[in-house]
Design a protein that fits this description.
This protein is mainly α. The longest helix is centred in the last third of the chain and has 35 residues. The model has no long low-confidence stretch (mean pLDDT 82).
Length: 295
């Protein structure tokens, strides 16, 4: 006999029944993601493996991941003979300078665009948005001309300013404007009541509250500048001692031969620091992007 409690129990849907009968069906999305993740990570793992191989092992077993006889000779050759010690220092200087310049310009401009309404504001935002669709190669000629007129060619300062003013600046500006626009007005009003002016409210109140977007911009600019190739190549054509890591990879490319193991070691030297920075600050990066988009 079926009681009223049992008769009121809802019947399981077809999907629930299929899930109970075939528990492996629920694992298919996870297995698919694992396969895609493996394919995505494999090139980086392979490059890291090649960095510890010698030339004979590379060509004898090119697809193997674990080196049979690991060696650090490739890193020594990249650091000394290929001058990666100098290129690494140049990259650190260029990246640090570009990050500082970008933070100063983006935070101040983003604060004004996000918090204030003035004539022409929408036009400025529209121009920044349109500039996102301009390929970087199209702006190299005016950048080169400006740097030549200012005497900044073949200088680290010229590369820093060019990288800080590259097209990704529009992305940072829009992110900063969206984040500052999300901050409550009561905070700014309380700062004004306490006697803070425009700059005081920005530096003492709004900028500390914008720590997530500041870290986000710092991470993104670090990645862009650290991996930059085109602008540093053009701006240091006749000054090889000022080249960063990306341009310095040419040292492994000869007219008829290429040092593949040395190139892999040099690439690993250039990738590991920026990956470590991103992993250390990824929580702030996600908070900054989420806050800007929500705003």
């Amino acid at each position: 006999m079926i009681t009223s409690h049992e008769s009121a129990r809802p019947w399981p849907s077809s999907q629930e029944g299929a899930g109970r009968r075939f528990p492996a069906f629920r694992l298919l999305p996870h297995l698919g993601l694992i396969v895609l993740g493996t394919l995505w990570v494999y090139p980086f793992v392979w490059m890291a493996s090649v960095a510890f191989k010698n030339d004979q092992e590379l060509f004898a077993s090119p697809l193997s991941i674990i080196p049979a006889q690991p060696t650090l000779a490739n890193f020594v050759r990249a650091w000394t003979l290929a001058r990666f010690d100098l290129y690494f220092l140049n990259t650190v200087i260029m990246t640090g300078g570009a990050v500082v310049v970008t933070l100063l310009t983006v935070t101040m401009a983003g604060y004004v665009l996000g918090r204030y309404r003035f004539t022409g504001r929408n036009v400025v935002i529209f121009l920044f948005a349109v500039s996102l669709f301009v390929p970087p190669g199209y702006i190299i000629v005016p950048l080169f001309g400006i740097a030549y007129q200012l005497g900044l060619l073949n200088t680290l300062l010229g590369v820093i300013l060019a990288e800080a003013g590259s097209p990704q600046l529009a992305v940072f500006m829009l992110l900063a404007a969206g984040y500052f626009n999300r901050l409550p007005n009561e905070v700014a009003e309380a700062a004004r009541i306490d006697g803070c002016g425009f700059l005081g409210t920005f530096w003492r109140v709004m900028l500390p509250l914008g720590a997530p977007i500041i870290v986000t911009i710092c991470i993104m600019q670090t990645i862009f500048t650290w991996n930059a190739f085109f602008i540093p190549l053009v701006f240091t054509l006749t000054a090889s001692n000022l080249r960063p890591l990306g341009v310095g990879m040419f040292a492994f490319q000869g007219e008829y031969t290429s040092d593949w193991t040395g190139m892999a070691a040099g690439a690993l030297i250039g990738i590991v620091p920026v990956v470590a920075v991103f992993l250390a600050l990824q929580r702030y990066f996600i908070e900054g992007v989420a806050g800007a988009i929500k705003g």
